[in-house]
Amino acid sequence: MQKVAILGIGQTSISEHWDESLREIAGDAALAALHDAGLESVDALYVGNMLSPLISGQNQLGTFISDWVGLWHREAVKVEAACGSGAAAFRAALMAVAAGDIESALVVGIEKMSDKTSHEVTASLATAADADYEVEQGVSFVGLNALVMQRYMHEFGWKHADFAPFSINAHANAMHNPFARLHQRITSDKFEKSAMVATPINLLDASPTGDGAAAAVIVPAHKVALRQNRPRIEVAASASNTDTIAVHSRKDPLFLRAAYESARRCYEMAGIEPKDLDLFEVHDAFTIMTALSLEACGFAERGRGVQLGLNNEITPQGRIPICTRGGLKARGHPVGATGMYQIVEVAQQLRGECGETQVDGARLGMAQNIGGSGATIITHILKAD
Amino acid sequence: MQKVAILGIGQTSISEHWDESLREIAGDAALAALHDAGLESVDALYVGNMLSPLISGQNQLGTFISDWVGLWHREAVKVEAACGSGAAAFRAALMAVAAGDIESALVVGIEKMSDKTSHEVTASLATAADADYEVEQGVSFVGLNALVMQRYMHEFGWKHADFAPFSINAHANAMHNPFARLHQRITSDKFEKSAMVATPINLLDASPTGDGAAAAVIVPAHKVALRQNRPRIEVAASASNTDTIAVHSRKDPLFLRAAYESARRCYEMAGIEPKDLDLFEVHDAFTIMTALSLEACGFAERGRGVQLGLNNEITPQGRIPICTRGGLKARGHPVGATGMYQIVEVAQQLRGECGETQVDGARLGMAQNIGGSGATIITHILKAD
User: Fold this and answer.
1) What are the 10-residue block averages of pLDDT along chain A, 385 residues in total?
2) Residue B160: left if φ>0, alpha if ψ -120 to 50, beta else—which one?
């Protein structure tokens, strides 16, 4: 298994792109990544997407996008793992390059969500849960997360306000990210007073959806040193793990076992411990997920993840910076694209391109992308050489 | 890139499985393949599926199925390339095993189509075409293929009746396949008189959809010889290639360039020529696709594919046996599962388990799975050691 490196990255802003179609948004990110890599072409295109069949009536998104960007007569394919689709596509491309079957791949995470009403989008997002045993009972995706958060607060004695630092940090960091969906600082007071969505999750616990695409070009690592004068970004580790699809099937719904397993495998592969990481792009779809992820990945004891926020340890200057570009909460969560935004953002940090939210001397960064309520979790560690 | 072998196979019958859900059908094939492999578990599950978001309201099918069959706390993911999803999932799993990242994988192709009306299924299948520039004009998937067939007949001077041998062979072979959707012999006369679907494609040019799943377990080849006393089935070659998504964008819509490119790459990898193949499981969604595939893969000159049927060269005793278990035409076409049925059937031939339609001394077989109207084409060559 040969080492693989990221040669180029690209992304679009996350917004309601009413004037751009699915293929145009994906194309913008794809061409930006190719340009950044200094390549005109690659051997294969891997696309991560969740909702295009439901929202755009379009399947076969790999070939749909390869055709649009002029990458004809080569491999193209789509990978789907609900909101974990972006990182799942990255991992599939990684395997093909690592195996030596292809010499280069472009990975694009793309979601176009604003073409349907929010009612339709809510129903589409529920396809990440178990259609027979969860959705059939009328539960929405935010509803499932609300049940988990309620239980967590009850079990470990936290108040809703204790989750505020996660969202405050994300919004503060997004102020400096031109691609972010939201550019507005928030306070604890505003956090507590925002509209309830599904008790105890309110609007400022939840990440906004949107249209957007992020992309990266990967090649065998030995091909990079010769071509670029910026740090070489190696993929030091990749792992994917799963839990039951339905939350109610888990013995302990407050333990993200798939996060634990995939992170542990990544630490082993990279030969590091959690404390060695300079930053962690966490899947903060809801504040409760941030707490659970920090715990499962070894940054806090069970039930103590919230404390990291309260202790100010998650800011770019903290012990374990998270959501350094705004996270899902403020950069935005175009579901099937999110995993690629995370990987692109870690790469930006390792290149030292993050300005006001740059983590000093960042050399090792982790990105973790989640499909469903902890059902599919894909973790990557990137390393600057 | 280490060599990979197929250790076990499984499949369900293709039918309208009203009494079984999506997860149950997939589970049946998955557990059959594990049982056949003599394994209780594998490192990862790869699922090929096209329509579950649209027909069953279910995304994240990898984890959905891994949960159902008890493969908890390991990797699971779905791969989609329209009707090419089955082989695309197989190829993604192959890359991960070939890279050495995982030691074993279970690949399941699954489609559950009978839960919606045929009108809804027709609309769902159209998501394989270009939503903006084909479907928006009102063209259906069979309509696109009809345009291609009309042009072929005009260009090369064939009559509709000349395509009959493809369907007659498929139906004859399916008589001996207990998993096949259709068990009825047809004649030239019946072929010519069957109901028109989209001129010139009639009912007996077209493959029937259905519910079904097929699965295979793959492992590094060096692990197989020690475990089994049947022939070792190696994956000798794998390649995926694409064309424009819309048929009208192609300079020559009668040349399946992605079939040509992926087959050529496979011949190179396996170190063989077309004439060395003992059988070819072709993607005969419509008779016209059979003719075009045979030509693109090197078995006939341009415009002469139909002649192979007329010359009786495609039967199990012929020069290049195709559809030996009934093909899409008579075994059935549960779209996202079809690619895995083809791979399972080639493996059955190489094991010598095909009874009345066994190809004598079969050692090398090719399976070719197509997404869209020639847009994504994935080719595999299997070899018995």
Assistant:
1) 95 97 98 97 98 97 98 98 98 98 98 93 94 92 96 98 98 98 98 97 98 98 75 96 97 98 98 98 98 98 98 98 98 98 98 97 98 97 95
2) alpha
Instruction: State the pLDDT confidence band at B226, using cuts at 50, 70 and 90.
Output: low
Q: Cβ of B359 under 8 Å from any chain A Cβ?
A: no
Q: Which residues in chain B touch residue A243, judged by CB atoms under 8 angstroms apart? A: 63, 67, 72-73
Active-site residue, A283 included: no
Report d(CA B70, CA B74) in Å as an integer. 10
Tell which B residues from 282 to 321 touch A, by Cβ distance under 8 Å. Answer: none
In this complex, is the C-beta atom of B269 within 8 Å of any C-beta atom belonging to chain A? no
Q: Rounded to a whole number, what is the distance in Å from the CA of B52 to chain A's nearest CA? A: 9
CA B196 to chain centre: 25
Residues 6+ apart with CB under 8 A from A50: A80, A82, A83, A85, A111, A128, A335, A336, B59
**Does the predicted model carry a pTM greater than 0.90?**
yes
Token pair, residue A237, equals 């580790």
Beta strands at B75-80 and A44-48: parallel, antiparallel or unpaired: unpaired
Quick check: B314 pLDDT over 70?
yes
Q: Quick one: tokens of B114?
A: 């009978």
Q: From the candidates B1, B23, B59, B141, which should be mutated to test the interface with A, based on the most A CB atoms within 10 A?
A: B59
The Cα–Cα gap between A148 and A204 comes to 17
Model confidence at B227, pLDDT cuts 50, 70, 90, reads low
Query: Cβ–Cβ contacts within 10 Å for residue A196, how many?
Result: 11
Q: Which residues contact B82 (CB under 8 A, 6 or more apart)?
A: A59, A60, B50, B127, B128, B335, B336, B371, B372, B375, B376
Q: How high is the ipTM of this complex?
A: 0.97
